[in-house]
Amino acid sequence: MTVVSGIQPTGKPHLGNYLGAIRNYVKLQDEAHANGGKCFIFLADLHAISMPHVPAELHASTLEMVATLVACGLDPDKSVLFNQAQVPAHAELQWLLMGTARMGWLNRMTQWKDKAGKNREGQSVALFGYPVLQAADVLLYQATHVPVGEDQKQHLELARDIAQKFNNDFASEEAPVFTLPEPYIPEEAARIMSLRDGSRKMSKSEPSDMSRINLTDTAEDMAGKIRKAKTDPEPLPSDLAGLEGRPEAANLVGIYAALAGTSQQAVLDQFGGLGFGTFKPAMADLVVSVLGPIRDRFVELKDDREALDAILARGAAQAREASRRTLDSAYAALGLVRG
Ligand code: TYM
Description:
Blueprint: E1 2-7, H1 15-34, E2 38-43, H2 45-48, H3 55-72, E3 80-83, H4 89-98, H5 103-107, H6 110-116, H7 125-139, E4 145-147, H8 153-170, E5 182-184, H9 219-228, H10 247-260, H11 264-271, H12 276-301, H13 305-333
Helix pairs in contact: 3-12, 4-7, 4-13, 7-8, 9-12, 10-11, 10-12
The protein binds ligand 1.
């Protein structure tokens, strides 16, 4: 079992990142550790330059994200925690895979279509080639399990397509260069929506801070955002069918179920027939009880830049070592001789 996943260090990590991905990084880290497997979690700082960004802020936000991940339970003694920029193999393998990825495949990526909008011609080449770097990220370590939210599923399917085509074109069946990775997507909370608009994903890049619960928010902020979350005037239904056509209500019930470790139906058994005036305070208590301790640990860790830099340096050394063999095989398979 080899677990690999990444998170962009731009913007603040939020409840969607936590429930969709980070919580599973920790779960799979512990499973891998118990079973002699490996776990690699990285800050995708190379991906972050595909959109306009502020260079002077990138390192600080990378360190903040490391502090957040450790606060959520990632353990640098169990996982290799690093940033891509310190492991050149990621950028190298991306280039090697550029010969295998097809324009048509990348053109179909919904994230590319969403981010580029009507102005494709004006986008960076990095934004278009982004999923190829993501494929390199996981293929470098022979990932088997890739914990991600629903929005990254298509990118993982592309990584499998690239791996398969590369193996077919350049390797023998007995000795493939790459392992095909499997996405690991939570059943509940695969896609947490904005608190202001139930049709939009909760996102780091959404301008309104009221749309998301940041892992670094104070308890008062979290409760305030839940109190002001958009809802409808009806009470909660008593079964799942009653949530249809009510995206905001469905989102809040989904969040509650995921945080309580129960099903949405169980939440409706408890709250069906009651209004949001009753549900929201209960939800705020639950959110604060789960995220409050994470925030407290984050506050303890975040200013010790030396310690955070040391975590990344150690992880990068381990990642450079772990990625060497696959990178060498990819060069060799393509007939590239490096002396
Ligand atoms: P990023 O930084 O946007 O998000 C990090 C993780 O959080 C998940 N996520 C969500 N899950 C549920 N509901 C939401 N509203 C929500 N928003 C985000 C994402 O699915 C992701 O798992 N391209 C990736 C980073 C990346 C990567 C990789 C991931 C780079 N290389 C290799 C996996 C493997 C990204 O931008 O994630």
